[in-house]
Design a protein that fits this description.
Bound molecules: coproporphyrin III, fe (ii) ion
Catalytic activity: Fe-coproporphyrin III + 2 H(+) = coproporphyrin III + Fe(2+)
Main location: cytoplasm
CATH topology of the largest domain: Rossmann fold
Distance between the termini: 16 Å
Oligomer: single chain
Number of helices: 11
InterPro entries: Ferrochelatase, Ferrochelatase_C, Ferrochelatase_N
Shape: globular
Number of domains: 2
CATH architecture of the largest domain: 3-Layer(aba) Sandwich
Order of helices and strands: EHHHEHEHEHEHEHEHHEH
Helix content: 40-55%
Pfam families: Ferrochelatase (PF00762)
Largest sheet: 4 strands, parallel
Subcellular location: Cytoplasm
């Protein structure tokens, strides 16, 4: 059966756009999730260091523009909408706008590449919840998980190769992804995909260079086990083993948002500095034309195969 999509929806996490947004944003993210208050206060400070503005919304505007350009360049006349889970434009408001515009069946490209609850299933729930709020809402199919696709992997390969070519001989690669609770549904699938993508990038960019997959941005109570090791602990382990230079590759993310800018560029970089280690972080796909094209490729394939996430 052939699905005819009449819109593309860019679905993302959302982030604050000023100091007054920070607390309500954090409350939206953590409602009912048992995140300790001290952790919330600490994360609020991360945002305030950047004037209360997360980079993620502008990155979504830029990605939306890149996708629109790619569609136009391929003579595909399709409106692109943007909605978030945790901040304006809220997904339900976007779905309301799509409904008013007469959209009947949209494909959703999510700013998260992997399987797993936080990375896939929760976005599927977001879509269902938003549609339930809006009478006459269009059908919305989440496009499939795309972590293995060249549009996502190749920008990391190129960036890793470039970073290594400027690095000293005994540099190690450190792949990072967002930690999640060990008890999180589909955590095994998330980890298996991360291991596969890390191995692919290492293999293509730097055969023979030692690498590890580690985690960042843990947030639950200490009593709850999350994926480990943490990136900062790993830097210490490498240091103790005599390693003096790392290239960090945040394969768990699609853009250089706050988890990258604070937890890696600020926190992990400071840790490396304290240890006397050289620390370089490579960029995420962001608005790389190959990544923008991936939205069109997935939509076109879903249209011809009827496939969905
Ligand atoms: C797997 C994963 C991704 C990658 C997939 C994806 O990209 O979607 C991701 C992305 C992001 N996480 C982000 C921000 C936050 N995540 C939090 C909390 C949590 N994240 C979790 C997991 C993930 N998170 C989990 C299991 C929690 C615990 C609460 C819960 O079970 O939901 C908290 C609460 C405070 C804290 O404890 O850190 C904040 C502020 C931002 C925005 C950055 C910006 O503003 O630029 C982005 C893109
Ligand atoms: Fe998060």
């Amino acid at each position: 059966m052939t699905t005819q999509y009449d819109a593309l929806l860019l679905l993302s996490f959302g982030g604050p756009e000023g100091p007054d947004d920070v607390l309500p944003f954090l409350e939206n993210v953590t409602r009912g999730r048992g995140i300790p208050r001290e952790r919330l206060a600490a994360v609020g400070e991360h945002y305030h260091l950047f004037g209360g503005v997360s980079p993620i919304n502008q990155q979504c505007r830029d990605l939306k523009a890149a996708i629109e350009k790619d569609l136009k360049d391929h003579s595909i006349d399709l409106p692109v909408y943007w909605g978030n889970r945790n901040w304006t434009p809220y997904l339900a408001d976007t779905v309301r706008e799509m409904t008013q515009d007469g959209v009947r069946h949209a494909a959703a490209f999510v700013t998260s590449a992997y399987s797993g609850y936080s990375t896939n299933d929760q976005y599927v729930e977001d879509i269902a919840r938003a549609r339930a709020e809006v009478p006459g809402a269009p059908e919305i199919d989440k496009l499939p998980v795309y972590c293995r696709r060249a549009g996502f992997v190749a920008p990391f390969v190129d960036a890793t190769r470039a970073a290594l070519s400027a690095a000293p001989q005994d540099t190690h690669l450190v792949f990072t992804a967002h930690s999640v609770p060990l008890a999180q549904p589909n955590r095994e699938l998330y980890v298996a995909e991360l291991e596969e993508v890390a191995a692919t990038v290492a293999d293509e960019a730097a055969p023979g260079v030692p690498w590890a997959l580690v985690y960042q941005s843990r947030s639950g109570p200490p009593s709850q086990p999350w994926l480990e090791p943490d990136v900062c602990d790993h830097l210490e382990t490498l240091h103790d083993a005599g390693v003096r230079s790392v290239v960090t590759v945040p394969i768990g993310f699609v853009s250089d948002h706050m988890e990258v800018k604070y937890d890696l560029d600020h926190e992990a970089a400071a840790k490396a500095d304290k240890l006397g280690m050289r620390f370089v972080r490579v960029p995420t796909p962001g608005t790389d034309p190959r990544f923008a094209a991936l939205a069109r490729e997935l939509l076109t394939e879903a249209r011809t195969t009827g496939g969905r996430a």
